[in-house]
Amino acid sequence: MRIDIVTGFPAILQSALNQSMIKKGQDKNAVKIHLHDLRDYTDDKHRTIDDYPYGGGAGMVLKVEPFVRCLEDIDKQSKISDSKILLMSPQGRQFVQNTATQLSLHKHLVFLCGHYKGIDQRIHNFFEIEEISIGDYVLSSGEISALVIVDSVVRLLPGVLKDIDSAWTDSFTEELLDAPYFTRPEIFRSAKVPEVLLSGNHTKIEKWRLNQKIKSTKNNRPDLYNKYLKTIK
């Protein structure tokens, strides 16, 4: 997979993209990630990427020209037909685990990182873009949102996780939150590991884990619990 990230603030991403699973994915050639500084696609001496909104109002708006130039440049560089452009936006479709799975099947993802009040709406006149949100709240920058999605997608790529079953048993993969996990020591300050996990009886262990998933989901995410109930009817 190839991932391109278009941002006016590349320093926000540089360190995080070279850590943990994202770095592992690049080291294993499962993904190649390219950062593009929006200011490199400006044409004035101040390298201006934002301006005041037409119609007045508070805040600034990211200019359309640098984004269009950058996306055209990426298109020339990548020459990949299976490209999907994602705009980080609180107005977008909510990102969930199933979205990560779908995105992991693409050969090329392009992330547009918003800032300030957002990007000039005319960007949609030139490219097919899907707006996507990581939740019902507002962040200072789309870079953080993009990083969340990149991490979630990269860990699903073949060869990144040593045990891919670890990814498929995570929370949300079956409309349930995950079960609690324990490791050594068996007893710590009188806190013990549940006996069933020490039994070696895998049928009982799986049943216990399913019950824990259901309990956790019912208590913490009733919306997901109701979805789960529909799947088992």
User: C-alpha Rg, in Å?
Assistant: 22 Å
Strand element count:
9
Percentage of β-strand residues: 15-25%
Q: What's the number of helices?
A: 9
CATH architecture of the largest domain: 3-Layer(aba) Sandwich
The residue fraction in helices comes out at: 25-40%
Keyphrases for this structure?
9 helices, 5-stranded parallel β-sheet, Alpha/beta knot, Trp Operon Repressor, Chain A, 233 residues, elongated, 2 domains, alpha/beta, two-stranded antiparallel ribbon
What can you see in these coordinates?
There is one protein chain. The protein folds into two domains: 2-154, Alpha/beta knot, CATH 3.40.1280; 169-231, Trp Operon Repressor, Chain A, CATH 1.10.1270. Helix content is 36%, strand content 18%. The protein contains nine helices and nine strands. The protein has helices spanning 11-14, 20-27, 64-78, 97-103, 142-154, 164-168, 195-198, 202-220, 222-231; strands at residues 2-7, 32-37, 50-51, 61-62, 83-94, 108-112, 129-133, 187-188, 191-192. The longest helix has 19 residues, at 202-220.
Layout: helices, strands, pairs:
Blueprint: E1 2-7, H1 11-14, H2 20-27, E2 32-37, E3 50-51, E4 61-62, H3 64-78, E5 83-94, H4 97-103, E6 108-112, E7 129-133, H5 142-154, H6 164-168, E8 187-188, E9 191-192, H7 195-198, H8 202-220, H9 222-231
Parallel strand pairs: 1-2, 1-6, 5-6, 5-7
Antiparallel strand pairs: 3-4, 8-9
Summarize the structure.
By secondary structure, the chain is α/β, with parallel strands linked by helices. It has nine helices and nine strands.
